[in-house]
Specification:
binds adenine; 18 helices; alpha/beta; single chain; adenine deaminase activity; 8-stranded parallel β-sheet; Adenine deaminase; TIM Barrel; binds zinc ion; hydrolase
């Protein structure tokens, strides 16, 4: 039978998705027009043509520039609702969505506006489609730990209103030169507050950053982590402790973490007993949503249907859902 139909039919959780990275060029242009913001591209096609990246930083430059069209509560709502519709179409039962408040507060957008728009879309989507959503507030690692503490302080009063959705803390942006150690104190504080913890590590940075994210930040999941293979002892630890990796194959390809999807270590990690999951990262920029990532890997790496089902099952198991809800999806 048809590979896409099979992948769409697997109950899946998406665990590594930056909501700002789901902003498609068409909506980006519409929001720019609505908000009277001039864009350095004449057309949607010209913008899309600029999505050719040499590394993580060349992507981040366009990703942060694109986010400047997000101004009002309605903008954040529209962006999030568009993603939730795509997720439902891909057979996603649950999404754990990262957002970068500092990208917006740094431009004068109130953190209340960011939370309100995203949360309204998640609640409406859950009611109308049944797809559930959690939020992971992510600190930008190119900024200081002091700025992360200030962002946390600004967000904490909103926990009362959004605590059912905002369950976690993450760490993203430029990895090299911004090691986990830089955020050890703020992560310890977030852990004490009862947040679930994740961090990007081992995407462009070395395996040592994955180890340090586990030991110094006490994270429960690693976002990416594909370079963990470079340290056999670390790899064994990931297997033994069943620490989930949220792998994003099309992202790795577009950001030239590898040259060809056939060189991706996803299949090797899975067959070696690592708790790997497949995710889309920034689907508007990398040319595919989560089902596209499963399909591209099935084709490039020769994954069997059993292996695709195992990846989907891993995504449910590695989610932060309460076990009664996981059970219903497994
Ligand atoms: N922010 C959005 N996508 C990211 C990625 N793949 N790595 C680090 N920071 C990001
Ligand atoms: Zn990411």
């Amino acid at each position: 039978a048809d590979l896409r139909a099979f992948v769409l039919g697997l109950p899946k959780a998406e665990l590594h998705l930056h909501i700002e990275g789901s902003l498609e060029p068409e909506l980006l242009f519409e929001l720019a027009r609505r908000n009277g913001i001039a864009l350095p591209y004449a057309t949607v096609e010209a913008l899309r043509a600029a999505y050719a990246f040499g590394d993580l930083q060349s992507f981040l430059d366009l990703y942060y520039a694109g986010a400047r069209v997000l101004i009002t509560e309605r903008d954040f709502y529209d962006m999030t609702m568009a993603y939730m519709r795509r997720a439902q179409a891909d057979g996603v039962a649950h999404a754990e969505i990262m957002f970068d408040p500092q990208t917006h507060t740094g431009r004068g957008v109130a953190i209340e506006t960011v939370f309100a728009g995203i949360a309204r879309a998640l609640r409406e989507a859950q009611a109308s489609t049944g797809v559930s959503g959690y939020l992971i507030l992510s600190f930008l690692r190119h900024l200081s730990e002091e700025q992360a503490f200030a962002t946390l302080a600004a967000a904490l009063p909103l926990r009362e209103q959004y605590g059912d959705l905002w369950i976690g803390i993450g760490l993203d942006s430029a990895e090299r030169g911004n090691p986990p150690e830089k955020f050890a104190r703020v992560f310890a504080h977030c852990k004490a507050l009862g947040f679930r913890l994740v961090a990007h590590a081992g995407e462009e940075g070395p395996a040592a950053y994955v180890r340090d994210a586990l030991d110094l930040l006490q994270v429960e999941r690693i976002d990416h982590g594909v370079r963990s293979e470079e340290d056999p002892a670390l790899l064994q630890r990931l297997v033994d402790a069943q620490i989930p990796l949220t792998v994003c194959p099309l992202s790795n390809l577009k950001l030239r973490v590898l040259r060809d999807l056939r060189d991706h270590n996803l299949a090797r990690l899975l067959r070696g007993g690592v708790m790997v999951t497949v995710n889309s990262d920034d689907p508007a920029y990398f040319g595919g949503y989560v089902a596209d990532n499963y399909i591209a890997c099935a084709q490039a790496l020769g994954l069997s249907r059993q292996e695709l089902a195992a990846l989907a099952r891993n995504s449910i198991e590695a989610s932060f859902l309460p076990w009664e809800q996981k059970e219903k999806l497994l």
